[in-house]
Amino acid sequence: MKKFNKLVALAAAASLIALLPGAGTMRVSAATPTTHYLQYDTDQHEWRLQTGSFSKDSGGKDLYYLNEGDEKVNDGDILVVMANDDSAGGGKNITVNAHLSNLTINSANVVISVGGADECHVNTDSYAAITGNITNAYVYDTATCTFHSNVTNLRMIATIENTVDTTVTVGGTVGYACTANAGGVLKEYYNFKAGTFNFAKAGGLMTDPSDYSTSGNGPAASAPAANTAPAAQTQSKPAASSGEYDAVPKTGEGNLSSWLLVASALCFGGCLVLRKKAR
Amino acid sequence: MSGEVPVAETSSAENVDDSQAPEESLEEIPVVLTDNPYQDSFLANADMAAWLKIEGTKIDYPVMWTPRDENYYLYRNFEGKDDNNGCLILDTDSSLDPLTTNLIIHGHNMRSGAMFGTLTDYEKQDFAKEHNIITLYTKERERRYEVIAVFRSQVYRKTDQVFKFYKFFQADTQEEFDDFYQNIKALSLYDTGVMAEFGDSFITLSTCVYHVEQGRFVVVAKEIETGDWYSPFSETNNTNND
Fold first, then answer.
1. How far apart are CA A142 and CA A243, in angstroms?
2. Please, what is the end-to-end C-alpha distance for chain A in angstroms?
3. Of residues B193 and B212, more confidently modeled
4. What stretch of H or E contains A69?
5. Strand B215-230 vs strand B33-34: parallel, antiparallel, or unpaired?
6. Distance CA A102, CA A77 (A)
7. For testing contact with chain B, the best of A253, A256, A259 (most B CBs within 10 A)
8. What is the pTM of this model?
9. Does residue A72 sit at the B interface (CB-CB below 8 Å)?
10. Please, are residues B192 and B185 in contact by the beta-carbon 8 Å criterion?
11. Are A249 and B74 in contact (CB < 8 Å)?
12. Domain annotation covers residue A46
């Protein structure tokens, strides 16, 4: 049984690493990270914070005001920005000083400043402007995102369609960038100069070829460099399409998200087993 | 089985004269009519245009043809229920009656190996040699094809002026044929040793791959001989594509 548990844990870890290239660069905190949920209260026009688990039915009553709850967010914690009305959340900036282990923008409209993040996931339909250095950024499907600071590894992933429809601009440098879909990595780019990364939905990479390289050794494992982002905010704008593709049935296996879910479940199970054993 | 028609003199690949258009030569050969082995499937779903089989591989599936909505079976199974595997799809610009020069069949590249999940095995020449015959069972007859070219390509933008394998369905002139033939031969990952000429018919199997955006892995085969001819059977109008 012990051997079986060990195998499960190893398989879980291996599957996650295999599915997320560069996941080995994640910073692991010794303390158990706490998960916080942020949601914009459209009635009060304030961001509220809820720690532990998110209750949709709370109607905001049980949520903390951000200025009270900010101190509850510590280095290594996880922050999830919950979905909100497009017209509501974007108008009010939020600041979290902690260096997060994971920042997830869950189909939300948000302008957020953090003290950096090991991982940042910008889910489909999100409109996000993020300040703070990011080690591993993942932008999914139709999300639109501006990173004002440096991004070490940036992955733009299509989980619904085969083509990558994200719109991403970066104010700082980008060490490694790639597009990917269910079948794996499509294109890889390296060493973007500060303020030059510009990937537009349908138009692809709009950066001048002199500002980046196409040769390198995969995602970087180093910590992000100092913040060299310009002070002025830049807004991502979709560029004009350079032409539609011919209509041919799309025959890729479009279920990357399912694989990620399975891998996450395996990993979670493996972690539980390990923790039990440690006790 | 019934045997009303005189027995065919020959149907072997060795005796087919490639210099003649297969349609003309093969149609004229008198044959024995046999029962269609996929009759039940044809009757179960009127959208089924044929059955595709490659001996020694997992490829053994119905091929659906839905001119009103080409993608209808892209994520539906034979019963019309949601299914990530989908079905093999005969491109709506291809036709079995009248037969177009090229029949393009699309299928998902599934990790499980289902549908065209193993099609990329044809990248290896040895594999292609061992599995060089592709059989298509239509309502009327069995069509056999021999692999002529294997290549990687992609779906291009509408404005791109390049060879688009997925746009070739009919060659009415020598020039149209040459354009297709020369391009697939040039793109082929290896020389199959199989030649073709104007008048030949083809089947093209296509699936997604990811070497580039909108990548496709393509196997093209040339019709070489006719197998059994099938007795007609009465059809019911059972379609899922309404």
1. 18
2. 17
3. B193
4. helix A66-69
5. parallel
6. 7
7. A253
8. 0.49
9. no
10. no
11. yes
12. yes
Selecting from A163, A243, A251 the residue whose C-beta is nearest the C-beta of B207 gives: A251
Helix axis angle, A256-278 to A2-19, nearest 10°: 140
Q: Considering only residues 185 to 214 of chain B, which have any Cβ-Cβ distance to chain A shorter than 8 Å?
A: 206-210, 212-214
As for how many domains chain A has, the answer is: 1
CA B140 to centroid of chain Cα atoms = 15
State how far the Cα of A97 lies from the Cα of A113, in Å rounded to an integer. Answer: 8
Within a domain: A94? yes
Which distant-in-sequence residues (6+ apart) come within 8 Å of A93 by Cβ? A111, A112, A113
- Cβ contact B109:A253 at 8 Å: yes
ipTM of the complex: 0.79
Q: What is the pLDDT of residues A264-277, one digit of tens each?
A: 677 667 767 777 77
- Which of chain B's residues have a Cβ under 8 Å away from the Cβ of A187? 212-213
CA distance A113 to A229: 13
By three-state DSSP, how is residue A110 classified? strand
Domain ranges, residue A175? 34-253
Per-residue pLDDT reduced to its tens digit, B105-123: 999 999 889 999 999 999 9
Burial readout A62-96 (b: 16 or more C-beta within 10 A, e: otherwise): ebbebeebbeebeebbbbbbbbbeeeebbeeebeb
Q: Test B89 with A249 for CB contact under 8 angstroms.
A: yes
In the structure encoding, which two tokens stand for residue A172, read together?
Answer: 């700082």
Mutate to test the interface with A, among B70, B204, B214, B218 (most CBs of A within 10 A): B214
Position A243 scores a pLDDT of 62
Q: How far separated are the first and last CA of chain B, in Å rounded?
A: 34
Fold of B16-230: Sortase; Chain: A; (2.40.260)
Distance CA B104, CA A119 (A): 43
Provide the residue count of chain A: 279
Task: Give the Cα separation of B205 and B88 in Å (integer).
Answer: 9
Q: Does pLDDT of A6 surpass 80?
A: no
Are the C-beta atoms of residues B64 and B90 closer than 8 Å to each other?
Answer: yes
What's chain B look like in SS3? CCCCCCCCCCCCHHHCCCCCCHHHHHHCCCCCEECCCCHHHHHHCCCEEEEEECCCCCCEEEEECCCCCCCCCCCECCCCCECCCCCEEECCCCCECCECCEEEEECCECCCCCECCCHHHHHCHHHHHHCCEEEEECCCEEEEEEEEEEEEEECCECCCCCCCHHHCCCCCCHHHHHHHHHHHHHHCCCCCCCCCCCCCCEEEEEEEECCCCCEEEEEEEEEEEEEEEECCCCCCCCCCCC
Residues 89-108 of B with CB under 8 A from A: 89, 91, 106-108
Distance, in Å, from the CA atom of A97 to the CA atom of A117, rounded to the nearest integer, reads 11
Reference B211, options A181, A192, A215; nearest CA is A181
Q: Kindly state whether residue A139 falls inside one of the protein's structural domains.
A: yes
- B157 at interface of A, judged by CB pairs closer than 8 A: yes
